[in-house]
Amino acid sequence: MKHSGLIFLALALDAFSPGFGAPPALAPSTLLQSRAVFLGKPASFWVTASGDAPLAYQWHLDGTDLLNETNSMLRIANTRVTDEGDYTVRVRNGDGSVISDPLRLWVVPLSTKFIKGNFTNGNGQRLPYFYTLPTHFDPARTYPLVCLFHGLGGDEASFPDFASSYAWTATFASYGQQEADPAILVWPTRRVGEGSWTDSYLVQVSGLVDELIGRFNIDTNRLYVGGGSEGVHAAWDLIGLRPGRFAAALVAAGWQGNTRASIIKDQTSVKPAKSDSKTRKFNSVKVTIN
User: Residue 131: pLDDT above 80?
Assistant: First the structure.
């Protein structure tokens, strides 16, 4: 019994000795994820950490300490172009430290800066669209083209307001992205009062892509298509309409189109998000859907 008491005492002392406490750990949170924000609008990141108190925080932008940003929440009241970049936060206590994975903040132009155009096909049918050019557009330079389909509820009258609620749709137009790898973005939309992407619209969008290639110096090996919500099936079927035309696709939160997946997987590079539970069934080239 005497030895048992000594062992118990030793364990008790060790539990309160430095180096035997709980180091910081970060909890998964939707408040600690990459995001896009319109220029001049607020943005914030918030980390939830556990571990023995006290916890100390330091936020970084592209690896550099942010002055006075030493709380669990980082808030930018009025985003500037220079706020775009990769953010991390390091949390420390007396038992160690942990740093978050990089979080990207994309600062994108206001939707009111998008340029409106109209494409009319040989039958006189009009397709409204909006587009952006690179910040330092050079007509002699070749650029990739990114064509993005929006979801339900948008048309040419409501698109600017519609787009202003979904900054992520303009990620490719962010100021940092346009400096690093500039591209021309186009958002086809619908005529006033029409609310879905029909086969007729897709034929017109295909014609619009050809028209933009002829008007601008587009790299035809870097044509991309994407969509969200109802725009997913539109992007899907545009790939089927023009096999081999698009180098890659980005789709999110929608449903597949009528084109067989076996055709899609051999034509376009598709890569799922990290959170997709079926990621192991995909690779960066093919989609393993029957």
Answer: yes
Residue 218 is encoded by which pair of tokens?
A: 């587009």
Say whether both 126 and 78 belong to one domain: no
Please say whether the beta carbons of 127 and 134 come within 8 A: no
The tens digit of pLDDT for each residue in 6-48 reads 433 333 444 444 456 899 999 988 889 999 999 999 999 999 9
pLDDT tens digit sequence for 138-182:
999 999 999 999 988 788 998 877 777 777 778 888 999 999 999
Domain boundaries, position 181 = 109-281
- Residues 247 and 159 grouped into a single domain: yes
List of long-range contacts for 161-167, beta carbons under 8 Å, 24+ apart: 161/111, 163/111, 163/114, 163/130, 163/187, 164/38, 164/110, 164/111, 164/112, 166/228, 167/35, 167/36, 167/37, 167/38, 167/41, 167/106, 167/108
125 and 239 within one domain? yes
Whether residue 259 sits in one domain with residue 179 = yes
Residue among 75, 21, 20, 67 nearest 47 (CA):
75
Confidence (pLDDT) at 168 = 73
Return the CATH number at 94. Answer: 2.60.40.10
The CA distance from 256 to 233, in Å, is 5
Total domains in the fold of the chain: 2
Asked whether residue 149 is domain-assigned, the answer is yes
Q: Are 208 and 185 in contact (CB under 8 A)?
A: no
In a domain, 7, yes or no: no
This prediction's pTM = 0.78
Closest CA to 97 of 147, 38, 46, 47: 47
56 shares its domain with 173: no
CB 263 within 8 A of CB 228: no
- Tens-place pLDDT, residues 71-106: 999 999 999 999 999 999 999 999 999 999 999 999
